[in-house]
Every structure is written in structure tokens, then in C-alpha cells.
Design goal:
Chains A, B, C, D: One of its GO terms (biological process) is glycine biosynthetic process, by transamination of glyoxylate. Four copies of one chain form a homotetramer. By secondary structure, chain A is α/β, with parallel strands linked by helices. The first copy, chain A, is built from 13 helices and 14 strands. In chain A, a hairpin with an 8-residue loop joins β13 and β14. Chains in contact: A-B, A-C, A-D, B-C, B-D, C-D.
């Protein structure tokens, strides 16, 4: 039994996701195979399903789709969007902007609502665009925009759309489990999350909640467009899971073990408590960053995400050098910015396992020390005190 | 740290796949996250890539697609089949028969070549259908038909098609790693396998080899059909991986760890040796089954798979009772038949970790004992002796 | 993170102990450190303690001594034997015979009761020696003699000694958890077991039950002999654990995790059920061996151990060749004989994780196949049928 | 497969030892059993042995004794001390003071050299006591005194004793692997360490290096005193390991796996580099503590240990409250003082896995934050800057 190759693993990862995950999840991943067509495995899946429904606060079943999160989001378009459908797409960041392509890919007549990437869309902007496009069929947006560490007002947007009969497609990959999501109460239609962000498990799945309205639309869209109804992108094969506990594909067994271990943590700690822990970690990080004299990237506290914090790179600092120093000397991996934000911001993830005061203090201490070392002195005393103080609230 | 739920894990799984997997793979799955945009992870991926190329015996890169194996197979149709294309589909089992729907789903004009599910397609049949359809663009078949434990003559079929300029789509999910596959030499165009069969890792990925011809066709098909070129089903986003080591999606990190551990075993044992081990396990199982006076499902030794053996359920035995007894008293999970074969056959998997003489003897001993117990006496002495003898050859 | 060295691990170990252990135990061993002076760890130790008391069926605390089992046995002599004390030592095997040296090492005036190593001491022999030595202070014996796979009648011996006021020292290293042990009811004084046999955990500890009488004697012996009262061999430092939950040394934290996981299995399955499982595995093994026409080493069914079975090596077979073949071709490691029995017997362990019908069939199948291969044909049909039949009773 | 009980594991343990250990070690602990009488296991043990010799910088074999570290230290007295032997015992802390009892327990005529527990013994004091007792046979001392975080000048003391023919017994449980130890060059006679401190593995073993002089003395002492020569405390049974690779007891197999994984880290990083990493972590911790305006417990930088740092509890702070706050809010477990130092100091371990700048910053950040919270403001900016600066040197 010889390992010819093992990756170098950083001491701690607090990046845009995945971050370092729960040890309980890692332990669960090592469980031997249980064949997916046994009662034992089906019972495990049912239990995962119950936990996911509790997490999304829905009575529907959340689909455990295997593939990266973008798969679940593309499924939404494949099943809900017919050529010519007016689709409103809110773009407050890279992922939001990118989704317009998916909608267009399925023939959507896309109305873009774009705001700068350091702020969020307001409910007033949403109402205005809905007023201007009373024929809109679908509105899509990103709940938690990981690339810019911002959050859109999911509740207000979804309630507004629901009232108007516009279906919502919500990318909450880094939202669910870290921020409040009430699928049924808010009238959400499709909401996608991943196990590798706030749940603290491993990447490779797309967890997709689908409302009854969305199921209905899917049936019609597939029939009318003639899209392949057994496609990996089609929701319909998943009816067998919803209706009779039959997962349509060989499930990713080990990932299910990890997900279950993560959900056990969430259920035993409580969904509200886990969300509060993320909010606390975010508040502490922001307080610390500010008290250290640094600037947050997002314009307003109310628009900031619970799972990740974006910090403006101070003038005179090269973010590549900064992050390299953090990797090499401080054993802490964080993320840079994407696209136009490359070089302008760094992102510190506090999600799942890393959503803890200790991890936040570690990140602030290492980050501030690295800045000091690079000739940009910061007030660590104020930073750590502010973080601990914010966490105590 | 509390586990509220853990599945009951059988002592041993020798089913249609996944079977019990290598302990080294299970250990590797517990490795902490390395962020996918780090050099460490990219180096790991490169190493996985080199191993996969060696396994498929190709100089091209095998794509580590995340999602069940059917995803990789559907990608083949999405990228290679235009509406109206004549597509030959060989159906010697459930999976083969099912693929006709995928081809039709993408507009293929499908020519079915069907044979009974207990035999294989012959090269003569293939030549005949190719002669009859000189305009065929694509020929698809299953290399190793897990549901009926049979194998089609991949080398002859692929060489024939390659000469005639017909692209091949090969489902070798339970073939690669257990039977010989020479992607470049045989002129294969798309070949899909999964980590959860002969590689002895965990399900959740589709490993897709693509020839230069297939890449070329894909570019044209996507352009001409207007199919969404950033779809999860589209091959083109994977060019970034092929050309500049950039995986287009967040990879399933833990599954990659498991796959690497499995490939380490294959590389250290040697590809030929691993295939020989599968062949030996299959030969031993068959010899044992026959010597116990039982019937194999597949008509001819030459058509039998290396990864799984199908045994005809003896008259008077209820396969549900038989398999339940094996689960409950013998701690060994095996599979039944699918569809029309339900109740008529049981399937014993000997793949990856379970492709060993010990595991085969365990399976034969438990299977024979269960039959004895159910009133169908078998000659275990002859069975085990024949198995051990066949393995010694 | 690179492993420069990993051992080759056999597919299955069914030796004299340790054998292959429970996967749950292996998983638990990977838990991160909890400092031993925290409430969390003390609570874990208390829970282990409760389980051990339930296992030994005693209201006293079983001491979790760290060191090999021989340590616990030497502690018995250090604390209970004064120079000149008449000590009866029953020797029905290597371990029993060897203990005379320990008793003499502490000044004991040893009366040896020796029987051939393929049988057990009878209660009549014990009564006779007790009658002949009314001044005996201590009687020592091995409950389950692993080297010869035999068992002495622990209940009768301990009850007899208890009535006469003779303290008993019982080596039940491979007995507790596999055979019935009722520490309080039978009036045992010191009973030692290890986690690596019937409990299916990892070696490195000596689990020592001590009666009130033994504690009393220990206090007197230590005081009168002037033996170092803080020695690692002295029981007295362990009073802090008994009286106030304070383990006197840094405990072997990982081994405690493994032990707890093993005890969880025992408690959840039930002590009686686990013992019955061992008895079944032993019965099945013996029935199979006999039906294969082979000879058991121990003279009488009533004297055979539940945790291991000794088989006489057939004439003309070299046990080294036989065991080497089993290692190399069948992936199953079993043990040979010790001392004079080297070459004359092989031992198959069925303890803890390997005490299952499946593992017994695997062992019989591989063992019989290896014998066949070496030119000593055996009736596997009869063997496996007898084993399965014996298990069904 | 259900865990009824799992301990709560703190996010991070930086206590007096064990601290949080290397993930590689945790992973290795989950390896299935390899029987100790197989070539595979013996080869593993030989490899462990080679690594241990390299670590202690000796050509002799270091004994892998199973049991807590105090066992190895008691073995030294059992084997080297005859009744009436003049034994010099240096006491600069709890462990050193306690060893006088062990020496007396074996009849030693002990000469105590005591210094306050916040300083170290000087070589001048050692010379003076050696001059005053030219008949001394043995000199014992603690290299790294974990309870007070101090270090005695091992090289000077051992060289001096070696020249005078006085045998040295060195408790370097928290020294080896963190501070320089050159067993052969310095003429040390017995040196004991444990896997659970600077090696970053799990507790449960005593690693004992023995010089030729010590082996010679042991043979004579055992013969002359009539001590039981097969005792668990006797060195002589270990000759079988030294001379012919035969471990005299069933080894703690899983602990050996963990130890090997830890030694792989040491060997691949290099012994000097690992020691330098400990020195750096210690220097950084001390610089940070001082810059935060707090007092170190030990009188002089030169006397401070590499593996742990003792901090004087500031006036007005209750150490129980402080450590409880760190446990509960900061997820970091550290140790308090022992005996008279209880309440007066806290101890932060930086050993093995926790000997890293990141972990030191985490500890300083959490510790300072907790003090702030309790109304004792500290200068974290200065503290973290000083720590990072000291590490950069």
C-alpha cells in the first residue's frame, strides 16, 4: 500500500470556496461503498433529502444532482426557458452576468439589469424592470455573489416575482447554509446550492430545489420545445426520485456520505444557529478589516455576503505577492479577484468549517502580518479587538 | 463530533458496480481540500491526466468530467451528432439499447443492430451494417455490457469504423482497466469510462477520451447546430484543460484524490497486470460457477466480460430470496438482473479491489452455500478447485 | 503530504491476533487529539469505563492500562504475590507455562499443574491441587490459550478458588468479548484482556479488572514488600482513576478512540450477541475443518476456544509452504504453531471483525484450495456445507 | 455502522502535549492491521528504527517501548540503578523533581540538585555536584521541562558526565525532534522521548535510546540485584529486537503506523529543519508575548524550551476563566500550570504540527483577544508584528 503521489495540502484554506472542510466530513468520505440499489443506501438518501428540505425550508424534495453547481443552474434554463421567453437577468457580479449567456443559450430574450460589481440590485430596480416587462417569464439572479462577496436581497426579489407570476432562478451556491433561505415561504422556484461552500463538504454536486410551479413549467417546456427528455440536463428523470425514491443515476456515493456528515452538523447545531455563525464570522471579519484601516470592496454593509469578504488591495501592494506570502509563510490560502477585479481585491472565505471566530482571527492575524511585512502597516490590535467584539454581539 | 447517521455497510459488495473499493482510495478521500486554482492542485490534475492517458493508451488528454458516466456518453451525442446524421447503434444489452434514445434525442437517424442480450455483436454484423449504410457518420456501442456481463469486440469494431471514416462512441464504463483498450492504436473516437468499476474508486465522474477527429467534428457540429457552446454537455469548454491546464469547472476535489489513489495502484501494478488480474478473476469465477453445475448467462466464453459474471438463476430458486440470504447471512451483496432479466440472473462483480482470487473464492463459497441452504445442492469442491485452477493458469 | 513508506497490507488477516479489525475502529483512530485533561476526554474515558464494566460484567472499574497485555499480567504478580507465597499455576499452553516465570520473578513458590498443550485443565485437577496446597494464595491460568486454541473452564475454576479464598489471576486476552466472562458473579480477582483480539480493535493496551479483594491484597503486598509504589507496574496509582476519574498517565488517546468504537459495536450488538457470534464462527470453522477431513489440534470440542481454531497440518504438507501460498495467492494471512507446535499446526483466527460466517467461509475456501493445490485434496463441498450448517444452528 | 459516541474535538489544541497532530499521522492510523510476525511488518519496524536512529543521531537502535513515557524512564532506573548507588538528580521542574522518587524506588542514594522551577540548572552546578560526589554512578535530568517550559543544557551536562564515567538518564520527552539531541556525539546513556510531543504523533509509546555502556550496566545490575529479567521494565528482552529484529511483545501496530508517518515528515523535511522550525515557533511566540506586554515565566531566553512557552498570568486574571474563554469562544485549548504554578502560568504548546508561524499567530491572536475581553488590554499589533518578525530571522 504505497502512495506514489499526494498533494501538498495547505495548513488552512480560506478562499472563495472550497475552503478547508469539516474533519467529520473528511472522516465520512472514507466509508466503504454501499450499493445504491440497497435499502441501506436508499434510507441514507431519504435522510439526506429530509435534511436538505429542512435546510431550504421547503416541503419539496431537493434534487441531489451530480455535477458542478453550474449544472443545476443550466438545468433551470433547459427546463424553464423557451425560445423567445422574456428573461430578466440581474447582474451584480461575474456569475450573475455570466448567466445571461445560459439564458440566451436556451433562446431566452434576455433583459439585463446591470449594477456595478461592488453593490447589489435593489428591490426598486427589480420592481421597475418587472413593471417594464410585464411579459417576463423568468427572473434569474445570484443570491450570494462569491466573486465580489456581495449579496442580493433574495427575499424581497422572490416575493415580488412570486406575486407577479414570474419564475425565479436563484444561484445560492454560496448562500444556502450561510444566509437565510426560505424556499416555500418566499415563493422561490428554482434554487441551487453546492455542498462545498457553507455546508463545509466537498465539491461535485448541485443541490436543486424546484417548486411545483417550476415542475409544471418544466413539463410544458420540454414537451413544447422537443428537448431531449432523458437528457442529463432535464429535470423530468428526477421525478422517479421525487415520487418513488429511485435516484435516476448511480449517485456519487462518497459525496453523499460527506454531504450527510455535513448535514448532521447543520441539523445538530440547528439551521438558524449555523446561519448565525456565518453572519457572526462575516461581521467579525469586516469589523477587523475596517479597524485595521483597510477597505471592504462592497459598497454597503447590507450588501455584503455571509460566506466571503472582499478586501480592496491597498495601494502599492501587489496582490500576487501578498497571496504568495500568505501561502508560503503563513500557510493560509485566500483568493484574489476575478476578471477586472484581478489585482484589485482579495477574498477571504468564512464558510462551513471556517465560519468560526478562531479562523477569522487566524485570517486577520496572518493577513495583517503579511501586509506589515510588505510595508503596509496595519493596526492589528484594533483589528482583532474589533473582530472579537463584533463576534460577541 | 457526533455522527447521527451512518449507513450499514455490508462486509463485502461484489455487485454490478460499485463494488467494495480499494482501502487506499478510501484513505485518500479523507484528504483536506486543496483549492483547485493552486499550483498544487493543477499538478495533481496533470498527474491524473498522465495516468489516464497511459490507461487509455493515448497521447490525448482524457477529460475528467464530473457527473455520472451517462453524462460523458450524452456529451458524445451532443457534440458529434447533427440532426439527420445516420447513426448506427449496436444493442447487445440494456445500456446499448438505451443509447439509441440518446442519439435520437440529438436528431440522429438511428440504425439499430440488435442481438439477444446474452450474446455479443459480431464484426461481420458490423461490417454488414456499415456496408448497408455507407453514409453513416457515427457508430455507437457498449464495450462491456454490465447488465448482461457480456463484451463486444471493441478492437475489431473500432478498427473497421476508423478505416471507413465512421466515428465511434464507446461506452467502456466497466471495460477500461479491466479489459484491453488501445485508444490511439485502434482509432477510437470517444471512449467513456467511470472510476467506480475496474478502477476501484468511487462513482461520480465520467472519464472521456476524445480523438482529434472527434474534436474537429465537435467544433463543426456545435457551430452548425447552434447548440449552446458553453453547455455542461459541450466538449468545447474543456479545450481550456487540454490546451492550458485550466479545468473549466470547480473539480470534484475528493473524487480526484480517490481517482489518483486508484491510478497509483494501476500504475504501480502496471496496466497490463491489472487487466490480467481482471481476466483471471473472471476466468476463475466462470470456471467455478460451471464446475458447481450452474449455467452462465452469456452464450460463449469469448463474449463474457472481465468485470462481472452473470449466472442463470437455477430453476426453483427465487433470486430475491437468494440475494437476501446472501446479504443477511453471508454479508455479501451481489446484483440481480435488470428488466426482462430480473429474476433470471444474478451478477457477481469482480472489478478493481474485488478482482482477486480471494474475493472470487469468497463469492463462490457464499453463493454456493446459499444455494445449498435453499435446497439446490452444488459441488463446492469442484467449484473452488476449478476456480483456483483457472486462476493458476 | 507524501508518504515515503506504507506497509503492504494483506487482503485479510485471520491469524492468532491481531486479525483484520473493524472499519469503524480504523475510522475512529483518525480522530484529532482531545487533550486528556479536558472534560471532553474524561467523559469519553468514563464512557469507555462503563462499557468495559458491562463487558466484564462487573461493577468495578476496568483499568485501561497502556502497554501490551503481558504488562497487565505482570502487574497482577507485582501487586498480589509476596516472596514465599504459594502460587498455583495451570499450564495448558505456552502462555500458561510462561506465567510461572512471572510468578517466580516476584518470589512466588510456584506449584505447576501441567497438562498436554492440546487439552485443558479439568476442575477436578484444580480441586486436587487446591486440596494438596491449602496454603495457596494465588491461582493463575489462561482462559483462552491462543497458541493452542484451547480454553480452560474459567467459571468452575474461579468459583472454586473464590470459595476457598484463593485469589485468581486470569489471562483472558483472547477470551473476553468472545467467551462468557462474569467477573463479579464468578468471583474473579484479576482478569486481563486486550483490545486486539475479540474486541476487534488495535493492540497496545491491557484492560485489567481488579476485585476488591485484589485491591486489598495489593495494598498490603506493596506495603510489606517495599516495592516501589509509584511503579508503572503498581496498581495503586490507578486508584486516582477509580476514585476520582483521574488517569494517572497520559492515556493512549487514539487507542482509546479505537477501543470506544469497538465497544460501541459490542454495546449496540449486545455482549451476549457478540459472544454468540464468536461461538458460531468457532463452531462453523470446526465443522468445516472436520468435514474437509482434517484434524483439529485440541482433543475435545469442549476445550476449544471461541476466538481461534488450531488445525493439525496434514502429513506431507510443509506448513511454511502452505501459509506462504495462502499469503501470496489467496491474500489471507493465518498463523503457524509456536515452539514445539511449529510445523504441526496452523491457526485460524475468528475474532472481532473476522468472527463472521463470511470470513469463516473465506478462510475455509482459501485453506482448502491451498491444500488442494499442494496435493492434499479436501472435500470443500462438505466443508462449506458443514460450516454454513453449523452456523445456522 | 453507527457511532454512538464521539468526543467533542476542539478546533485546535496547543497545550502542553499532546497538541493537534499532523493530518498525515491521523490518516496513517486508519491503516488495517498487518500481523507483527510478517516480513511486511518487520520491514516497517526496521524502517522506523532507522529513522529513529537518524533522529537521535545515533548508530544504536532506539527501542520502541509500548507504554507512556514514564515507563521508559522507570526502565532506566530498573536497569541502571542498584541499591546504594549514588544518583544525582537535577530538579528544575516537576518532572525532574519527581524522578528522584523513581531513583529512590530502586534503591538509589539520591543527591538532589534543586533550582527554582523558572530557571535551569547550570553546567557549573553540575560540575560542582559531580566534584562533590565522585562516586556518583548516575545523573538524571529532564532536558525539556514541559511543566515550566524550560530547558536544561543537555549537551554540556552529558559531555561532562560522559567524561567522568557517570551514566546519564535524560528525559527528553518534549525535547527530541524540537531541540538538538546528539546521542552518540554527546555520550548520552539513556534518552527517552515520546511520539506525542515534537514528533506530532499520538501518545502511547516510550522511545528509548540506550548506549553500549548502559546496556553493559543493565546486564550487570539485573544479574546482581536479581531483578526479574523478563519484566516489562527490563531492557534485556529488547536484545532480541536489537540483535535479530524480533520485537519481544505484540507491538502497538496502529501507533507504529502513526509514528512512521510522523518520521516520514521529519525525514523528508530534514531533522535540522524540523528542529529549526520548532526554534522559530518558540522564538516567535516569545517575541509576541513580550511585545504584548506580558511576562514569560522562565527567567532567561537561554533557558526556554522550543516546544512550549509558559506565560505568567497577568494580575487580576483568573487562569481558569481565561482558559475556559479560549476553549469556548476561540476554539483553542491551552494548558494551565501544575502544582504550585497552578493559576500562575498558562502554557502554549508549539510542537510537531503546531510548530508553525500560522499556529503561533492563531494562538497569540486568540490569547490576546481573550485577555482584551477579560479587561486586560494588550498590544496585538506589536505582538503579532514581533512574532512575524522573529520568525523571519
Amino acid at each position: 500500500m504505497t502512495y506514489a503521489f499526494r498533494p501538498h495540502v495547505p495548513e488552512l484554506t480560506m478562499a472563495s470556496g472550497p475552503c478547508s472542510i469539516y474533519p467529520q466530513v473528511l472522516a465520512a468520505m472514507g466509508t466503504q461503498m454501499v450499493h445504491h440499489r440497497t435499502d441501506d443506501f436508499v434510507n441514507l438518501m431519504r435522510s439526506v433529502s429530509d435534511d436538505l428540505s429542512a435546510l431550504f425550508r421547503t416541503t419539496t424534495r431537493v434534487l441531489p444532482v451530480e455535477g458542478e453547481s453550474i449544472l443545476g443552474l443550466e438545468m433551470a434554463a433547459y427546463n424553464l426557458v423557451e425560445p423567445g421567453d422574456v428573461c430578466i437577468n440581474l447582474a451584480s457580479g461575474y456569475y450573475g452576468a455570466g448567466y445571461a449567456k445560459v439564458l440566451r443559450g436556451y433562446g431566452g430574450d434576455v433583459v439585463d439589469v446591470a449594477v456595478p460589481y461592488n453593490t447589489s440590485v435593489t428591490i426598486e430596480q427589480v420592481r421597475a424592470v418587472l413593471d417594464a416587462h410585464p411579459d417576463a417569464k423568468v427572473l434569474a439572479f445570484v443570491h450570494s455573489e462569491t466573486p465580489s462577496a456581495s449579496e442580493n436581497p433574495m427575499e424581497a426579489i422572490c416575493r415580488e416575482c412570486h406575486e407577479r407570476g414570474v419564475l425565479t432562478i436563484v444561484d445560492s451556491v454560496s448562500g444556502v447554509g450561510g444566509s437565510d433561505v426560505r424556499f416555500d415561504e418566499w415563493g422561490v422556484d428554482v434554487c441551487v446550492t453546492g455542498p462545498q461552500k457553507c455546508l463545509g463538504s466537498t465539491p461535485g454536486m448541485s443541490l436543486v430545489a424546484v417548486s411545483d410551479r417550476a415542475w409544471e413549467r418544466a413539463r410544458r417546456v420540454i414537451a413544447e420545445t422537443g428537448r431531449y427528455e432523458r437528457s442529463y440536463l432535464c429535470l423530468l428523470p428526477w421525478r422517479s426520485w421525487v415520487e418513488r425514491d429511485y435516484v435516476p443515476y448511480t449517485p456519487p456515493i462518497s459525496s453523499i456520505y460527506g454531504l450527510k456528515a455535513a448535514l448532521d452538523i447543520v441539523m445538530s447545531e440547528g439551521v438558524d444557529a449555523v446561519i448565525a455563525r456565518h453572519a457572526t464570522a462575516a461581521r467579525a471579519t469586516r469589523a477587523g478589516i475596517r479597524a485595521m484601516g483597510l477597505d471592504l470592496w462592497v459598497d454597503d454593509e447590507a450588501n455584503m455576503a455571509n460566506s466571503v469578504t472582499a478586501v480592496a488591495v491597498p495601494d502599492g501592494i501587489d496582490d500576487t505577492v501578498l497571496r504568495g506570502l500568505m501561502d508560503d509563510r503563513y500557510g493560509l490560502h485566500i483568493s484574489g479577484g476575478l476578471g477586472e477585479e484581478a489585482g484589485r481585491l482579495v477574498r477571504i472565505g468564512h464558510m462551513g468549517y471556517t465560519a468560526s471566530l478562531q479562523k477569522v482571527l487566524t485570517a486577520l492575524g496572518a493577513f495583517g502580518s503579511a501586509l506589515n511585512e510588505l510595508g503596509h502597516p496595519v493596526d492589528l490590535t484594533a483589528g482583532l479587538e474589533a473582530a472579537a467584539g463584533a463576534a460577541a454581539k
